[in-house]
Write a structure and sequence with these properties.
Keywords: DNA-directed RNA polymerase, Transcription. InterPro entries: DUF6596, RNA_pol_sigma70_r2, RNA_pol_sigma_r2, TPR_rpt. The protein has about 425 residues and is mainly α. The protein has helices at about 10-30, 35-55, 60-80, 80-85, 90-100, 110-120, 125-135, 140-145, 150-170, 180-200, 215-225, 230-245, 270-285, 290-305, 305-310, 315-330, 330-340, 345-355, 360-365, 370-385, 385-400, 405-415, and strands spanning about 5, 60, 205-210, 210. It has 22 helices and four strands. A hairpin with a 2-residue loop joins strand 3 (about 205-210) and strand 4.
């Protein structure tokens, strides 16, 4: 095989390997029916590549080289008598393929199938995002555990159990048809968004192998938009995350203190990212099928009006929150809606709407341990002049706050009241 001897830099090789990981793992998983075995085979192929390529040069078709070596590893695994009896069909298929020099670029991209396998209903919701990071992007359990603030051993065990569940439950790695995509898309989008929000809630941006979770979530959404271009909610999520990214530089002041959205210096917002977000939101809207992420992105778009008009379009924001609540029936949306309502009506009306949530005894128990509820309550009580109630709410919010910069912001507000 012809070599490109000028591509010997280990860092370039590592980047090439990572870009290929999800695509190759998906193809191998489809052929073997076993995600864990495919991972082991691909890991061996990568190890051989990282050892040989710096000395011998990168192959002219690196993906085909990696795929061929990994496929041979799977065949070697399948040659054991036990595996041959259990997986005769897959073994025969692999042997048939082995006589053909296969170009992975000629094979349909199976990464969409891998995404849906990671979010199958049989897979625990809490492990779907980490499983997607490992299978689509090739991150190891320790790096993922660090980003999600979980002990590496616990994360490794959860990932192993999830892959075992895929094999035992017989979850197929098939490219879903249009109806199946729509049925399972919410789970895929939720998993990607949880990757992003994990980064957003951490001051370190969920650092993972010299990148960050936010970048990985954006990359996965970009990939999903290419694999499922007919789904408007994919572009809605893309727009939502880009709006958030556009404000990254304004989230903290020069001292590192948290700055809420309404008080941010919009001159620090990234106009290029806002333009990208607007483009994707318009594209999603043109498909005439509205959903949660499109509405949330539209709310963020209404906030960007402040760049040109000096204030956000609060009337539009309130209408959008009402629409979102009707769609989701989420108390989180109701909390945000109450805070937004105070911008166009008397704060007492907004506070009354917020306190209506506690009429439900079961929901009240949950809200008592939900930091944003107490932060919103403190804000609205302060605007209504209810000093004692506001102080109590601030204290509750501070006690429940895990983010250091947000805690400092709330403590500052409480001190100002005193």
């Amino acid at each position: 095989m012809q070599k490109q001897n000028d591509h010997r830099d280990p860092r370039l090789i590592e980047a090439l390997v990572r870009r290929s990981y999800g695509r190759l793992l998906a193809m191998l998983s489809v052929r073997s029916g076993d995600l864990a075995s495919a991972e082991d085979a691909l890991a061996t192929a990568f190890e051989i590549a990282l050892k040989n390529w710096p000395e011998q040069g990168t192959p002219s078709n690196p993906e085909a080289w990696l795929f061929t070596v990994a496929r041979r590893q799977l065949i070697d695994q399948a040659r054991s008598a036990k595996t041959q009896r259990q997986h005769q069909e897959e073994f025969s298929y692999l042997l048939d393929e082995a006589v053909i020099e296969c170009d992975p670029l000629a094979i349909p991209d199976q990464r969409l199938a891998l995404m849906f396998a990671c979010t199958h209903p049989a897979i625990d919701r809490n492990i779907r995002a980490p499983l997607m990071l490992q299978t689509l992007l090739g991150f190891d359990a320790a790096s993922i555990a660090s980003a999600f603030l979980i002990a590496p051993s616990n994360m490794a065990q959860r990932l192993v159990r999830a892959k075992h569940k895929i094999r035992v439950a017989g979850i197929r790695f098939n490219i879903p048809d249009q109806s199946a995509i729509r049925d399972g898309l919410d789970a895929v989008l939720d998993a990607i968004y949880s990757i992003y929000t994990t980064a957003w809630s951490q001051s370190s941006d969920g650092d993972i192998q010299h990148g960050n979770l936010a970048e990985e979530a954006l990359w996965l959404t970009q990939l999903l938009s290419e694999l499922a271009p007919q789904e408007p909610e994919v572009f809605g999520l893309f727009a939502l995350m880009l709006y958030a990214e556009s404000r990254r530089a304004a989230r903290q002041d020069v001292d590192g203190n948290y700055v809420p959205l309404q008080e941010q210096n919009c001159e620090l917002w990234d106009l290029k990212k806002i333009e990208q977000a607007e483009h994707y939101l318009r594209h999603a809207s043109s498909m005439q099928r509205s959903g949660r992420f499109q509405i949330e992105a539209a709310i963020q778009s209404a906030h960007t009006v402040r760049i040109h008009q000096g204030k956000a379009d609060w009337h539009a924001i309130n209408k959008l929150y009402a629409q979102l609540y009707q769609l989701t029936d989420s108390p989180v949306v109701a909390i945000n809606h109450a805070v937004a309502l105070a911008e166009i009506l008397e704060p007492q009306i907004a506070l009354a709407q917020l306190e209506q949530l506690s009429n439900n005894a079961e929901l009240k128990k949950r809200l008592n341990h939900y930091q944003p509820y107490w932060a919103a309550s403190a804000h609205l009580h302060e605007r209504c002049g209810n000093r004692d109630a506001a102080k109590h709410a601030y204290q509750q919010a501070i006690g429940l706050c895990n983010d250091q910069t947000a805690r400092g912001f709330l403590q500052k507000r409480l001190r100002q009241m005193s």
